[in-house]
Amino acid sequence: MRLGSAVHYSGNVLEAAERVRDWERVGLDVVWVAEAYGYDAPTMMGFLAARTERVHIGSAILPLYSRTPALLAQTAAGLDHISGGRAILGLGASGPQVIEGWHAVPYDKPLARTREIIDICRRVWRREPLTNDGVYQIPLPEGMGTGLGKPLKLINHPTRTDIPIFVAALGEKNVALAAEVANGWIPTMFIPEKAGEVWGGALAKGAETRAPELGPLEVVAGGALAIGEDVTELRERARPNLALYIGGMGARDRNFYFNLACRYGFEAEASRIQDLYLSGSKQEAAALVPDEMLERTSLIGPAGYVKERVAAYREAGVTILNVNPIGTDPTNDLEQLRGWL
Fold it and tell me: How much is the mean pLDDT over the chain?
């Protein structure tokens, strides 16, 4: 099991880069750079590539709709080159509010787009002349544009032609797709004890047609980290964020995180949280986040307890334990955790 952490899309990214340098020295294996509608992820990823030596650098996530497939492939190849083969391309559909409200692109065909983009990226890295006949028409066909487009191949020779592609997915169909065609899967709000019940069928379905050369599917999951005898109150910090995702991250009838909470068995709580959050009662919504969810989506507690949580994530198939250190000595907590892995 490898150890990962993330750089959030808010806050001081320069300070975050220095933290990553410290954490690399105590054994951090992977750092993920988020992107929403703040700073772009590739800029930060390039900066991290220059400031680090060993840690792998992944996007988590680049929205499918914000860039052309060719640009996604170019970006990943460039990052892989300047990092010496340490790039991971993390992709996801994001949601309608961001894609249509920020990028001004229709939120349509997420599954077909995911499949085609992954295939196109891999063909670009193999330096094949780029053509595609699907959601993405490459080159543009007659009647669209000038008619002068022609198949091109990547000018550079990539450091690797098999840059890992990880897909952020929650729904059954897109989880199955990730298990079929991606190198890794990035879920969120991951409860190890319930993962098999919620996602086991989708993962098995995707695995049925998975190409053997892809190897086993990597799984990235974890939560907040704090190790100590008197740290359990730190779990409370997650309440507002979980309430945001369950209650307000999307429209009432199209919120993937709300649906996940319901699939975990928290239907009544999720409905009340959503009602309160959308009415503006955010603190009241946060107060209703189930204690079980707070506990099981974190690694916060005494050393023995955190070791038990690590075992639960391992048992659930997690291969990259992704943590957010929030204790008083985050570097020491990461070093301890690295030793247990």
Answer: 96
With 90 as the cut, is the pLDDT of residue 282 above it?
A: yes
Q: How many Cα atoms within 13 Å fall on the side-chain side of residue 23?
A: 30
Q: List, in order, residues 6 or more apart from 115 with CB less than 8 Å away.
A: 177, 181
pLDDT digits (tens, 9 = 90+) for 112-162: 999 999 999 999 999 999 999 999 999 999 889 999 999 999 999 999 999
Res 100 pLDDT > 80 = yes
Which DSSP category does 87 fall into? E
If you compute the radius of gyration of the chain from its CA atoms, what whole number of angstroms results?
A: 20
Q: Burial letters for 109-118: b for 16+ Cβ neighbours within 10 Å, e otherwise?
A: ebeebbbbbb
| Residue given tokens 């892809």 in the structure block | 214
Q: Is the dihedral angle over the CA atoms 8, 17, 31, 65 positive or is it negative? A: positive
Residues 62 and 163: beta-carbon distance below 8 Å: no
pLDDT band at 254 (very low <50, low <70, confident <90, very high): confident
Contacts of 158 (CB under 8 A, 6+ apart): 77, 80, 81, 125, 127
> What are the tokens at 191?
């409860």
Angle at which helices 172-181 and 110-125 pack, to 10 degrees?
10
The residues near 104 (Cβ < 8 Å, ≥ 6 apart) are none
